[in-house]
């Protein structure tokens, strides 16, 4: 199967200024990542704040141009697309944002919020658009009567439903969702997760799902990729990565999640210290200062993201020794 | 011996233009020394207002209209403001959710940690600063001698939360109230902070009220758990008992809706509807509208908390 979306050696750097006389420095938010997203699949991208996962979303939607590297959609390179092709790309790849409070224009009625993408992409006439808006509202579990209301008249969960309806308005093929449930209350979170799964199944969409919550990641993803300091450190199928991680960072992330069984106190492999600054990333492996297994070579040579078992890749010099020993 | 903290019949209301909002509607809670009590609920359920009530820091136009809050037998609601100030930050301390907004950006962290010591202990400026260095070291801040001179913006989120904890612990409080202490932090940092709180609680035999919506943290850290809904405690029990044997339909629903308990790719359990409007009078059970087992009598009767097993209390007439 050919991938729907491919990112190759994607890099995004931002210049930062320390102070008036300080030297200009470079912050590398995304430090060369490769991604493939296949039709109909959900790829979960996880990592802690500042690891670059939201920048990846902005690069893939075309909201921010990459510093280098390429993004291909159905084999065509984004940077070489004609205006018409780019418009088509922007129609087919939609985004759902994290915060349903700041991502809807407070001065627009729901009918305008959902109608705007239809107008921009010249879909239907006025009456047709109104029918489409009503259909979209029903699709996300709201009532067409809500059409004339403003965003502030809705709860957080309802607003996120509107955000999802807006993404669905132009019949996309791929939805990039950046932490779509993390601002919501527990009982509402489950409703939105179910809705996302319903639309994915019914409309046959592909999803890139960005989250820091590994239990949500496990629930929604077919494949997962774990990011650390601008790089993908591990990728594979959901069960591979979350049941048998091959990178110490994935292991630390998984073991830091409190267990819901009060009788089972999991042994926490606690990652020491904190996320280093992306302005001055560590030499060698970016995780080595926090890694419990670090060896001298880890600070000298950066490990490549290599296939360790079929379908699962990890960027660690010692994956085999640490995680695959007893399996042999 | 009286409990460390005993709240009975607490009611806190906000007089708004649109009516009286009853945020806390008759809460009973106790905390023993060395015990961690988790207070769990979704936004707007009244858990933070309950905490603010204990410290008598309910923001206007809110006020406590009924109930008593006894701290080692002494009714905090009857104290003068001056006496209350001697307790606040000294014997009862608070750790807030967001260290960026609850630390003062124009003072060094050393000054802020030392402030309580100067006020409550009467330490000199130098004495208090020496103590602050000691406290920051205890909460795991490296090179504390240098860090005391830093301003909040110079520290990371995890370090700022450690500073908040050092501030709360400065005067050796007997009770700490932590309102979502790790919500703003990443999981690897969250694990570090929770380990730290655990260790300090055990060492100093402090009581802890842990306010959170993260049920994983509750399962791992709390001795007892109280579930709040629409201003009331709807269920409370020892944590292991509550997770093994949830009885209130709201608790059951909340646990069932977690992705951890779902099968990947399958639907998660949800409940319909939303939280009731807390303005005006609520007759009967506030969960009635969303409840899968409720009947007509639930919306008429006032439902009392009942002990259905030793130490396991539930506010539901359908539970036998």
From TrEMBL, chain A:
- Where is each ABC transporter domain found? 5-254
Domain (PRELI/MSF1): give its ranges: 233-328
UniProt keyword Lipid biosynthesis, yes or no:
no
One Pfam family cited in the UniProt record for this chain = oligo_HPY
CDD domains, alphabetized:
ABC_NikE_OppD_transporters (cd03257)
Molecular function terms from GO: ATP binding
Write down the InterPro entries for this protein, in alphabetical order. Answer: AAA+_ATPase (IPR003593), ABC_transp_ATP-bind (IPR050319), ABC_transporter-like_ATP-bd (IPR003439), ABC_transporter-like_CS (IPR017871), Oligopep_ABC_C (IPR013563), P-loop_NTPase (IPR027417), PRELI/MSF1_dom (IPR006797)
User: Superkingdom of the source?
Assistant: Bacteria
**Keyword annotations:** ATP-binding, Nucleotide-binding, Transport
Q: Signal sequence span per UniProt?
A: none
Q: Tell whether ATP-binding is among the UniProt keywords.
A: yes
Q: Which family does it belong to?
A: Belongs to the ABC transporter superfamily.
Name used for this protein in its record: Dipeptide ABC transporter ATP-binding protein
Species this chain originates from: Geomonas anaerohicana
TrEMBL record, chain B:
The cross-references to SMART domains, in alphabetical order and at most eight, read: AAA
Q: Write down a Pfam family by its short name.
A: ABC_tran
Mainly localized where? membrane
Ranges for the ABC transporter domain?
5-255
Which Gene3D superfamilies does UniProt cross-reference here? Answer: P-loop containing nucleotide triphosphate hydrolases
Membrane topology qualifier? Peripheral membrane protein
InterPro entries per the UniProt record, alphabetical: AAA+_ATPase (IPR003593), ABC_Ni/Peptide_Import (IPR050388), ABC_transporter-like_ATP-bd (IPR003439), ABC_transporter-like_CS (IPR017871), Oligopep_ABC_C (IPR013563), P-loop_NTPase (IPR027417)
Localization:
Cell inner membrane
Q: Does the keyword Nucleotide-binding apply?
A: yes
GO MF term (any one): ATP binding
Q: Which UniProt keywords apply?
A: ATP-binding, Cell membrane, Membrane, Nucleotide-binding, Transport
Q: Look up keyword ATP-binding and say if it applies.
A: yes
Q: Which family does it belong to?
A: Belongs to the ABC transporter superfamily.
PANTHER family named in the record: DIPEPTIDE TRANSPORT ATP-BINDING PROTEIN DPPD (PTHR43297:SF2), OLIGOPEPTIDE TRANSPORT ATP-BINDING PROTEIN APPD (PTHR43297)
Name by which UniProt lists this protein: ABC transporter ATP-binding protein
Lineage here is: Bacteria, Pseudomonadati, Thermodesulfobacteriota, Desulfuromonadia, Geobacterales
